[in-house]
Amino acid sequence: MSEVVVYSSNYCPYCTRAKHLLASKSVEFKELIVDGDPELRREMMVKSQQRTVPQIWIGEQHIGGCDDLYALERSDKLDELLSSVVS
């Protein structure tokens, strides 16, 4: 699956920051909002082994959360990773 997926919450400033960074790079992403959806939150937790949002995947690779996404950006690795899944 070649896409970017973000599990997020409407009330999470870290989710907003992560989505802003992706949007600033003109990356389309699939947003899955876990607010009020215990099944979707459970799915996210099983897949990521994390309880917090956002949880981000680029293709099949689990990136982690907002801090992890920005760390990739600071290390100049985010664009390369995104180019592997975004056409």
Automatic annotation (TrEMBL):
<protein>
    <recommendedName>
        <fullName>Glutaredoxin</fullName>
    </recommendedName>
</protein>
<dbReference type="InterPro" id="IPR002109">
    <property type="entry name" value="Glutaredoxin"/>
</dbReference>
<keyword id="KW-0963">Cytoplasm</keyword>
<dbReference type="InterPro" id="IPR036249">
    <property type="entry name" value="Thioredoxin-like_sf"/>
</dbReference>
<keyword id="KW-0676">Redox-active center</keyword>
<dbReference type="InterPro" id="IPR011767">
    <property type="entry name" value="GLR_AS"/>
</dbReference>
<comment type="function">
    <text>Has a glutathione-disulfide oxidoreductase activity in the presence of NADPH and glutathione reductase. Reduces low molecular weight disulfides and proteins.</text>
</comment>
<feature type="domain" description="Glutaredoxin">
    <location>
        <begin position="4"/>
        <end position="63"/>
    </location>
</feature>
<dbReference type="InterPro" id="IPR011900">
    <property type="entry name" value="GRX_bact"/>
</dbReference>
<keyword id="KW-0813">Transport</keyword>
<keyword id="KW-1015">Disulfide bond</keyword>
<dbReference type="InterPro" id="IPR014025">
    <property type="entry name" value="Glutaredoxin_subgr"/>
</dbReference>
<dbReference type="Pfam" id="PF00462">
    <property type="entry name" value="Glutaredoxin"/>
</dbReference>
<keyword id="KW-0249">Electron transport</keyword>
<comment type="similarity">
    <text>Belongs to the glutaredoxin family.</text>
</comment>
